[in-house]
Structure formats: C-alpha cells, structure tokens
Amino acid sequence: MEQNGNGNDNEEKKWQKILYKKMSFSGVVDMAIAREKLIGRIMGMARVLYGLYLIEHPGPSTKATWRKVISSQRKKAVMACFRMVPLHNLPRHKGINLFIKAYRQQWLVTEEPFQYSLIQDLTVSEDGDGEPDKKEEDSPKPDGLNQLITALSRCSTTEQVALTGLLNDFLYMSYADIMSKSCSGEDEDDDDDNGEPDPSAAASFQEQEMEKQKLLFEQSRLADRGAAEMVLLYISACKGDMSEMVTFTIELGISLLRGGNTDVQAKMLSHLREKKDVGFFTSVAGLMQTCSVLDLDAFERNNKAESLGVSSEDSAGIKNLHDAEFTCKLFRFLQLLCEGHNLEFQNYLRTQAGNNTTVNIIICTVDYLLRLQESIMDFYWHYSGKDVIDVAGKENFVRAIRVAKQVFRSLTEYIQGPCAQNQLALAHSRLWDAVGGFLYIFAHMQDKLSKDPEQLELLREFMKLQKDMMIMLLSMLEGNVMNGPIGKQMVDTLVESSANVEMILKFFDIFLKMKDLTTSEAFLAFDKNQDGVISRKEFRNGMMASNKCTREEIDYIMMCVDTNQDGKVDFMEFTERFHNPAKDIGFNVAVLLTNLAEHMPNNPGLEKLLEKAKSVLDYFQPYLGRIEILGGSGRLERIYFEIKQSHIDQWEKPQIKESKRSFLHSVVNEGGDKEKLESFVNFCEDTIFEMQHANSISAEEQTAHMAQIQAMRSAAGIPSTGEESMYQKFKTKVGEGRHMLWSLLSILSWKNIKHGAAIIRAMTLTELFLAIIKLSFNCSVMSVKFAAKLLWMLVLWIITMMMGEKDSREHDEEPRLPLALEGIDISHVTTGESLAPNIMEMPDIDPERVTVAPDEVSSDGMASDSDGGTSEVEMTPPEEDIKQPVSSQLSDANKTTTQQNQKPGKSALNVPLGTPGEKINTTTDEETPGDESQEDQSKEDLPYTKKANEYGNFLMSLFARNFYKFKLIALSLAFAINFILLFYRVKSSSLESSTSIELTESPSNETVDGATDSGEEAGSAETLDLSNTGYYMEPLMMMLAFLHSLVSFFMLVAYYILKVPLVIFKREKEIARLLEFDGLWIVEQPSEDDVKAHWDKVVLSTRSFPDSYWDKFVKKKVRNKYSEQYDYDEISNLLGMEKGDSMKFEKEKKQMSLLPSFISDIDWQYQIWKLVVIFTDNSFLYLMWYFLFSVFGNFNYFFFAAHLLDVAISFKTLRTILQSVTHNGKQLVLTVMLTSVIVYIYTVIAFNFFRKFYIKEENGEKDFKCHDMKTCFIFHLYAGVRAGGGIGDEIESPDGDPYEAYRILFDITFFFFVIIILLAIIQGLIIDAFGELRDQLEQVKEDMESKCFICGIGKEYFDKVPHGFEHHVMNEHNFANYMFFLMHLINKPDTEYTGQETYVWELYQQRCWDFFPVGNCFRKQYEDGTE
Hints:
The protein is mainly α and 1427 residues long.
C-alpha cells in the first residue's frame, strides 16, 4: 500500500492518503507490540474509513440497494450530522465546558464513591446521633449492615445449599461487590501484572500511612459485623465448584485482607478453629483441582480448525487457561491469609489440629504448580522447533506466567517468617521437580527470545517469573543453618540443572557487561556523530576494541542486536533493554548463590557452579549488603539485601564523613553496650535522613525530577520546550541577559550619540526641562518597581524556606486532561505515537463514535469546515465510561511518553492533548497554524510564582551542594583581604581624602589613641590609606569585601538548606521519643530548670508537628498508649488533636481568613518554635556572626581580621587545638571567676592598707592607681595577674616602711595563690584537655583497628585466618551495612518484608537492640562446623 506521490486527487485513494501520510512504519512499531497486531490495527482503521467513504460514494452495484434502504432525505440528514461542527467548538459551549469542568473538579471528583456512601449509611444507627460506626453499649439494635451480613451468612448454611451447593444469587453478588469496593484502594499485585508504576510510590509517607489507616478502618467496619466469617462460610458451601458466587466471595475476602490486616486474619482463624470447618479446606483443595492449566491438545485442535475455516468466533488462546483470573484471585486470597508472616495461619494451612480431616493446602499448591509447569513445558516443546512464537502462543504463555507468578508469591508467603514446618513440607514435596523444570524453560526461552526483537515482551514476562521464583527460593533459606537439609536439597537441584543454570548465568554475565562496554572510551570512539547510533560493523568493532567480551559472547550479542530502518544500531536503547532486567533479576540469583556458598561450604558441585558465576558475583559484590543478627531462636542468622549506588555515593560525601567522625569520637565515652548501640542507632537515623535530604537536592535528582515533569507535560498535551533540565533553563536565561546587555551597549554607539545630541540641541528650554522631568519620573518609577519586585521575591523566598519544599506530587498534578478526554485511557497514546493503530483498541471509545466528514477531507488529512477552517477528529467517550482517575492516566502516559521519546522518527496523525476545551487535533506539528499560540498558552499554564519557585529551588539546591566550596572560597577571600590590609599606612592630614578611612573619633574630637603628636596642627586627623600602593588597590579591596559578604550569605543559605533540616529532624525525633517512650509532659512534667523541655511543649499542639520526623502518626500512638491511664481529653488538648474517636479522612477545609493564603497557611506557632531551635544551633549562630562581621567589614575592612579564625574551624588539626580550650569550658570559666574573686579580695586589702604604695610619679605628676576601688581592681587584674612576680613587681618597694612585713606577706601570698596556683590551674585545664582529646583520637583509632565495633570481639580471634579481621569488619560486621539495612527497612513497604526483616523492624519499633550480635558472630557460632 504505497502512497501516490504525484498529487493525484483521486477520490478512491483519498482515505489511504489520510491514513498513511507521513506514517513511517518504523516510527510506530513499539517493542511491546507485535507486527501482526499493528497490521490488524491499521486494517481495522482502514475498514472504518472505507465504510465512511462508501456511504457518500456508493458503487454502481450498491446504489439501488442504498435507495431501497434509506431515502435521499434521510441520507442528507445523516451527512449533515457528519459535517456538523462539534458543539464544544462553539463559543457558547466553550463557556459551558468550562463550567462543567469546574463542577466536575469541585464536586464530582471530590465526591465519595457510591459503594462507600452506601456502606457508611448502613452503619448509621437509627437512634444514634448520626455518627457512623459509633458503638453504644446501651443500644441493643444492630445497624443495617450488621443485619444484612447476618442474613446473607444464614443463606450459606441452609439445607438447600447443603444439598445442591451454591446457586448464583444476584442479590448476594451485588452486595459482595459493593462491600468489596467499599474498601478503598486496589490490590497491589494487580499493578505488577500490567507493568504500570505503583501510584502510591509517588505519594508521601504521610499520605501512604493515611491511606493505610483508612483501609484498616473500612476493613474493620465490615469484619466487626461478620463479613470475614461470611466469606469463609460461602467458600465452605461451594464444595469445590467454581462459580460466580465463589468469585465475588474471594474478591470480598481479598478486600478484607488487603495489606495484611491481622485483625481480620485472627477472626478468620478463630472461626475456623471454633467451628472446625473442614469444608473450607476441602473446598479450597477442590477449587485448586478444578483450576485449569495450558492444554496443548486443545490448542492444536483449535489451530487446525481455524486453518480449515470451521472454528468458532473465540480465538484459540481463550480456550486455554480460561479461568486464569479466578486462579490468581484464589491464590492471592491464600497469600493474604498469611500476609505479614502470620505463623499460626501458616501452620494451620498445612495441618488443621483437632479436625477429623486434615487438608494440606501447601502440598495442594505445589501439585497445581507442578501441573502448570508441565503444561508450560509442553508449549515450549511445541514452539521449540519454530523460529517465532505466534500471537496465540504469546497470549497463552503470558496467561500461564501470570498464574505461575501468583503461585510463587503464595508459596513465598507460606514459608516466610520463617515457618520451619512449611519449609520442610515444601522441601519434601515435588517442588524441586517444578523448580528444575522452570530452570530449563528459563534457560532455553532466554536464549530463544533474546535473539528476536519482536519477542522481547514475552522475554520480560519470563524474567519476572524467574525473579518471583528466586524470591521463593530465598525464602526457603530463611533461618538456614550450616549444612542444613533444605540447603542440601536446593544445591542438589541446582547441580542437576547445572547446564540450565550456566545458560542463565551466561545470559546475565553478557548483558551485565553491556553498560560498561557501551560507555567505554574505546567503544564510544566509533560513535563519531555522538548520537548513540552506529552500524552493525562498528558495533562489533567497538566491542572487540573494548576487550570486555570474548569472541563467543560478541557473536551471541550480535544475534540479539536489531537495526532500525536505516540499518543502524541504537546501542544505548539496546543496552537499557537488556541491562536493567539482567541487573534486577541477576541480583536475586547472586544473593541465592552467595547464601548457599556461605551456608554450604566444601560442596564440590556448588563450587563448580560458583566458578561459572564468578563474574556475576563480582559485579554485584559492591551492591550486596550483608549483616548478622541474633534471631528470635537465639541463633545467629545472616541477612542479605541490596545497597543502591546512590546510597554508596552519599556515604562518601564530606558532610557524612564529618558526622561519622563526630560519632566515633563521642561513642568512645559511652559505658555499656546498650548505650553504645543506642547512640549507634541514633547516628544511623540521623545519617539516613541526611543522606536522603542530600540526595533530594543532588543534581541528578533535580535532573530526573525535571525530566519527569517534562514527560508528564508532554503526556498532558503541553508542548515540549526542548529543555532537559533546570540547568539548561538557567543557562538560557543567562544567555538572554547577555544578549540584552549587548543590545543596551549597542545603543551607545557613536552614531546614536550624535543623533541624540542633535535632537537635544534642537529642543527649546521648556521642552528640555519637561524631558528631564519625564526621564527622572520614569527612572524613579522603574527603580521603585524593580525594588518592589526584588523585595517581593525575597519575601516569597523566605516564606518558601520557612514552609519547606512542597511535595513533588503537587507539580505532577499540574497537567490536566481536557474534559472531553478524561474518560479515555491514554496509557498507549503518546505525543509521538499514531492515533490510527490505537483507536481500535481503546476500551473506552466506541469506534462508531469516531466521525469524519469524508467528502470534506483534504489531502493533508484534515477535515475542512464550511467556513474554510479545519475540523478535528472527534472522539467522545460514553458518559458511563468516565471512571479512570486523571492521576493514573497521567502516570501511564508519563511512562509511555518516556519510552516513546527514546525512539527517533515521527508518525502521522499525531495527537497532542491540548488544554481544556480543545479537541484532539489531527494536524501535524508542521501544519498547525497555531503552534505559537499553543506554546504561549503552555507557558501561561504555570503561574509566575511556580516558575519562580522552580528557579529558586534550583538555586538553593545549587548553594547546598556547594556549601563546603563556599567555605573554602570565603576563607581564601579573607586571606586575600588581610594580605592587602598589610599595606595600609597611617597618614596625618588636615584634608579628607576620598580614598582613605578615618579612625573613629571620640566625643572630644580626639583620635582613637587619645592624643596627637606635638608637630601636628590642631585640625589634623590620622587616616589610613593605600595611596602608595597603586590606584587599583582600593577598588580591588571594595570588590573583595563585597564578594566576601556575598559568599558569606551563600554559606548561610547553604547551611540552612543542607544542615538545618537535620537539626530540626534531631529535635523532633528527641521530642517524639520522649513523648512516646518516657511519657514526658503526660506522665511527668519536666523540671523547672529544663528550659528546653518547656519550650518544646509549645510545638506539641501544632498541626505541623512532626514535620521532618518519619513517624507522622506519633501523636495518635501516644494518645492510644496513655489514654487508658490518663484523661483522654487532656491528652488530646496537649497534642492538638480532635477528641472524636471516629476516623476522619477528608481533607481539612480551609478556614476563611482576611490574610492571603500563603500567609494564613503557615503554621506560625511551629515556625516560631523552629526559628528558636535554629538560632540555638551553634553552627548556625557561628555562620550568622560570620556573615554579620563580613557586612561590617564593608564599612571597616579591619573586621575581616576576625574571619581568619575560621582556619581553626576548617581544619581538623587546628580544630582539635581549639577544642582543647572549649573542652573543659565550664571548669575554665569557674576557675577564672575564682581568680577574679581572689584578686578582688586583694584589691580590698590594698585599698584599705597599702594605698600609698600605688602612687607613681612621672614628669612631676602623680598617678594614683588605688585611690578608688574601680581603678584599683582594674590595675590588679591588668598589671598584677600579668606580672611574673605578682602585684609586688608593679608597685613601690616596701623597704624601710613600717608596713614592710605586712607588704611582704601580701606580695608573697598574691604571688603564690594567683600566679602559681590559679594561673597554673588554668594552663593545666587547657593542657589536660588537649591531651585527653589526643588520647581519645588514639583510642578511637586503636578500637577501630583492634576490635569489631558491632560484636566487640578482638582482632586476635579473627587473625587466625590471614586477613580475617579485615574480612570480618568489611563484609560480616560492617557497621555501614547496618545503617544501609535500616535505610532498606525504612524505604521498603512493610507488606514486602521477609521474616527476618519483620523481626528486626518490630524490635526497632520497640527500641530494643537484642538483634545486634554483641559478643558473638556467625563464624564463632559455627567454628566447629556444627550448631
């Protein structure tokens, strides 16, 4: 189907031109869409357009039939409808659309679903006060929901059900569906199957916790009224027969158990034990037996029937595994029964103690898995001899893989905890046969599918299944012991399938090297255009030049490489395609082999396998974290987890190293192990927060965030500006400013100056006067506007810093879809993708609603209106189909757009999703006459304040990242300024010089030194200048002073952004811990002298607390913990919480205020508390005084001398010397006070008895040093303390005086007590502090080199093996790995924890550190090879 490029306007070919114009075949082929499927889409669109064409241009043979079917009048009416301008294009309806969108956003979107409202109405008590779910002991009447569930439960136990089984009950199914949907949220595993990102991943921790609490409330509302028991009764009544009743019942059970609700699990387990309900387990086992698997015989029969043309309308794939959705739900229900490592339910699924009949659900699950694996194997053998797997085969494989993934997840939940009995049950079952079969399938399917680019989607599905199987095998090793039976069986299975395992490892090894290979200099030398596209020959030569792959591996890679339409290879896309899955799944393989290698030593088969996997293990070695914990059974266990590269990079940052050094120096003084571990965990928490905060303001994070926003704008129809990051925007603005400056300077050319002078000469005096006034007025107005704008930006910036950075999800929600498209699933419609191939598969669009006027379609693919304008393709979804939230559509479109933008080329019929009120324009970018207006409108979509915030956040992050560089620059500038100060001279002059600095004069007009030389005149003054050093020194000094002030301000801002959040986090964490564990301010009040605790009480009642601390629901925990012992209302008032018990999840309505929103939204009480905390931080105060002295230095340059003291802060060696003075600061101050008191006592004695000795005569004038107490005391402090022999060296000798003996005693005692004792004490305190700090540094170094920080075992024990201690502290008990593990737990959802992770997290929540292996290690426990 080629286009007729000669411009022939043949009507019969017009629909083809519309469809295929500018449609490049390679531009629309996605790796996830099969070629046959794409052709089917094009043909479907062709049928629609061809049918529309035949309506207006019927052939000769059909004209008679046409006239019989419809009259010409009706025909004209139909064609008029086709030509009619859409209503939403009329001005009146545009206004209506704006109102409808506002109504939808303000009312319909915020309105709760009817299922939730119905269940809420049913829980309202008839004689209550209108509050839902309010329990009253005096009310005997149950609510409507309780009565409904009771009635439905009784229907499952009738005699008719016992005889005939469950029959479809429409009423029950409807209410079960309503109750299921009343539990908010969606099942987590549903998103994984579709490959879509989890919407909750972008939500903040507080929002996730709020959704969790809301779900628990909704689940408990149903479970408290018997819904959990009703689910079990209906499953028991089905007797293993699959029906719609069972499907709705299992869906309700999944909704009740979602998230691992322990209360619902306990209710179900209690019901099964009390009723001894054997029917539930027999029904579940029967349902597993009725669940189908792939049937190769039926598949071949259907294919043969289709080839003969006698097949039914259903395709062959649907007849295989038709109940896949039900099977997944069944095993998902069983998984949720054990979610959260419910050990009692895990054991009860294996054996039902006390029942007459026991059904082992664990073995039934393995039996079904084995049947499924054998059916997948049959399909593999069917396609092993074929080069390509057809569409029907892919659908069957994908359906079977989806079921197998859910079965593996259920098996994983059966045994995690660990549940040792279930592990042994699986170990003695036929699970290993299924694992061996799957290993064979994985190995050969990876080799087969990786060589065909059109089969990559199926390859990804197999790799996801492989990941789930590896997680299940890792769960089998939880609680593994040395040379345990499970480990032996697993090793035997891997050794038997060693050929398949080697193929899998070879696949991972090859593609793990790809990223290093394609980024090496030798390879990039072949990319001459630097566009990431090279020829196949260059690709091979580049791999050979890099010397990272063998010739065999290069040949294998070349078989997997595909080319574009020009015969080129996009090596960057090829690398991402294979490297990321190999890294994701290969990590689990590396963890499994490492676990087996450390628990199964000296196994020859395993050692051979490890040799083959050496390169894979070496690749993952830096990212494989391991720690040892003391398990609940009192036995040491090893935990393996992943360490991200970003965390490793943050650990090496200077601020983290400084925190680490401070911690190691402070922990030496801790006494016992408990205090040491408490300090270590606090250090880990602070470091994790600091690393996360530093990562959020890093350049990479900023770039990724801006790329995500740009992709979402593109998906929402906002035209791309072509800017990749905020750095590019900043660079563009700098270029514009340079251009404006150059334009301004060009005005001052000689020609323009002469022209302006001529105009001025031609003006009269009146005109000249008016022109000067007008120019002055305009300059004043512009200056005022500029100053006001700067002041306003400064105020906004200060408010932004006070309130902190808003959630990034608020920016993600900015792009909104048009109202006419809000119901359309645009997850597969992108800016660069053709509409034609996708329109037939849009589930929310009826193809009959796609209307085009064929007779008015021009050659360029646009439908022309009667007025000469252009019309668009109108796609109006059914009203009832508008269900999908916009946020999920944007997330899907974001992902698709990101993938699509990586491919070159354009497609015809591009569909940019415009702003609200616009239609879907099918005009290409080059043909759209309103592109400029669209770009202008897209710029208006972001308010000015948001644009300013983007630039402000970028600049503040830039400051924070360069905090230590600013410190170094400021110190260098201070040295330069003080070096120039050495050239200043004192000059006496009667005239003031513009290049001099006058010394400050006293009120008597005397100079600072109080006198002038005798040769100077009365009106002369001393000045300091640089007149002898050159004319350029004074401007240079001014410039350096201004730069130093500017850099000092940047330092202050950078510290506020980089370190102040950590200060607030530490303070909030301290308050939360005191409140939760010690009950401070509730159980007991702080002491009166504890000013800090009394000030912290102010923040408890604020709505913003806690803001930085992780646990946002600490107030709720505290109230629930202490409400039984203390007054509930008083605790609520103290914490600023509502007193009602009912859960309220609606957003708080903003109170009406006369102040602007950006001021009224600020929690001023919290911000005042925060400011006080900030200004009590020593580092912030130091930087603030540093900045103030720098500002004062612009008026007097000698203030910069104080900045040289920053040397003692910037360098660790000098900082130790400075700490020696401040280390014993309290004792030093008290000693100085005692010295002052002693000197004052001697002053009193001297003033009363020895005044005559303090009279000095110089030049005939007497100087009385002790004739008033103030002068006498100052003289003793100044002269007496400084004198080497005491005060006696500074006064007259008592020789021959009657008071000679008393003077001698006075002088000797002053010398002894003040000079010898007190001054020596002061010197001794400083020297001792320096020695103590030096010993502390040496002790820290010695402790780190001689014993393990975690277990405390000495170096001599581990050095029995060469380099044993180094291996122990680097791999086994690396305290950085314990911090990374805590970060791993904080970032990981609690529903995905393994058993060991759950155990550690529970102890961590209780502030119990019993999991640390103090005094023990794994090697010591198994040093004899036995437990």
